[in-house]
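Slide 14.
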Amino acid sequence: MSRQINRSELGQFLKARRSELSPSAVGLPETGTLRRVPGLRREEVAQLASISAQYYTRLEQGRLQASAPVLTILAGVLRLDDGQRDYLFELAGKENTRPRRQKDQKVRPSMQRLLESLTDIPAMVLGRRMDILAWNSLASALITDFSRIPQEQRNYVRLIFSDSTVRSRYVDWESMARDCVAFLRMEAARNPDDPRLTALVGELSVKDPHFRQWWAGHHVAHRAFGTKAMRHPVAGDLILDWETLSSAGDPDQQLTVWTAEPGTPSYDGLRFLASWSATDRTAPRQSGTA
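Slide 15: predicted structure.
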């Protein structure tokens, strides 16, 4: 009897928490249509959590017992604080194996100085989840003006799928996007309880059918170098080699640089872009923490 009561209370708790979240708060587009109920719909929560709408509905109706992994995902999707998370697990009769809180990532001063010294090579520092931690002015000129993007939205995978400017830079966008999904899959294997990663995957799964399809494919990749064809409105068509170097001080931070073979049109194009961007160059930016 008590188990049934707890399930019922669990469903009411989930319903109350989703009613407090707007679509924009979890990265979903506002359709402009009037909602019959406040907050997120059941289907939206299910999509963000990568579970079926039927499964979530039964859970909210008290007809299903949730597993600990599903509870962990829902806690991230619904933006539960520590106390709410504890309560959620207590209602479900599950042990709350709280994930280790990750430290905020900050670019080390030596890495920042290195970025500042690379005036003719595009470079940026990516952190966990491929968050963009820092960049130099030529990377901004090559890809997009990262400073225009709110700090909490500065994630390279998100930009690849949702930013038309970034998307247009890659001649073979599908190949680049697939690589990003595979890299993110590898990140999910290393940090399965990262609530921000869970929220990012849920957001992109709802927004983009390609991401949803490729994520379901469970392909993984971990490459440190490659070649990409890019199309730039100022520098023209570019064939650039990219290289990723891990930071000794923080293995979760990686410096990515783009170069072109000397004597090629791409090399000349990159030099022209550096000269063009220098006319309005600002100091390299960094997002602070992530």
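Speaker note: DSSP finds 13 helices and six strands in the chain.
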